[in-house]
Amino acid sequence: MVDNAHILPLNADVALEELAANAVAVGLPMNTPFRDTTLREVMLIKGPIGWAEFSPFPEYGAEESARWLSATIEAGWHGWPEPVRQSVPVNATVPAVAPEDVETVLARFGPVTAVKVKVAEDDVATDIARVQRVRELLPDADIRIDGNTKYSHDEAFEVITALPFLAYAEQPVPGIEPLAKLRAALRDAGSSVLIAADEAVRKETDPLAVAQAQAADLIVVKVQPLGGVRRALSIVQHAGLDAVVSSALDSSVGIAAGVALAAALPSLDHACGLATAALFRTEPAQPALPVNGVLTPGPAPVPDAQLIEQLKLPDERQRWWQTRLAKAHSVLTQNA
Ligand SMILES: O=C(O)CCC(=O)C1=CC=C[C@@H](O)[C@@H]1C(=O)O
Ligand SMILES: [Mg+2]
What we know:
Blueprint: H1 16-21, E1 23-34, E2 37-47, E3 50-54, H2 62-78, E4 88-89, E5 92-94, H3 102-107, E6 114-118, H4 124-137, E7 142-146, H5 153-162, E8 168-170, H6 176-188, E9 194-197, H7 199-202, H8 209-212, E10 218-221, H9 223-226, H10 229-239, E11 242-245, H11 252-264, E12 294-295, H12 305-311, H13 315-335
Helix pairs in contact: 2-13, 4-5, 5-6, 10-11
């Protein structure tokens, strides 16, 4: 039974001046292009209880970014709920690289028991070959794919049925109805590959619609896009589906919030997509790299002042980030 009357409200109780005065925008160089970028820009904000992150992707508007800012306020001003587990298993994330490069990418994550492979950026045959290469290297791993909405129904069906060992396919097709249709077609064909919803949760105005439509077996939850750890927890609770926590390609400051969410979920049956620090070449805080495939909950790491100086974006980008902070804040406080 889906009940969306009880999703927690967004956090909107910090003045713009306070946020702006304590914020710096930095650029994190990446090892491998991911989401078409080689420099992930994030804003780090020092709150009274710790460092927080505000890092909506550059193309996101103020409405969507307001939810990210609510998570920033929670992290720096309110704090997260107590963990119910001290160990969060994580997956390696393999961007849409050539199959021959998979081994090098996997090596950055150390030993892991789960791997998420990005697909739908090349042709279907290359996608299948990339996933098969992961399977060859880690035959016992739990392997999932993420299509980021970019397959057609037929492409998704072809890839998923060619890879019957997959644990799940994350948002292979766009929207809720196409996801429901694909899920039904796979079941009819006898496939046991599960369907996970990501964009259909984090970009829909109603994050519970996917559960209502029975379009997925599990939901991918990300702290910033859902407005904070506590709000994401309330969404999972009301969706009534299994959840897996993923990063939004946050710096390790933001990853601490993701680990806090994963550590606070009543049940956690899947390794989480929180090892993305391995995709950065450098970042201002101690990178949240998995040890034997797990991350441990704790406060956000404190960025190093010298590294902040080194990675700080030029003035024009600082102004751009300050403007979007102001716009997101305006939407957030108007809606509160
Ligand atoms: O889940 C993971 O393994 C890593 C995070 C990840 O894949 C993503 C992070 C940020 C934006 C997205 O393009 C992407 C995702 O779709 O899940
Ligand atoms: Mg995804």
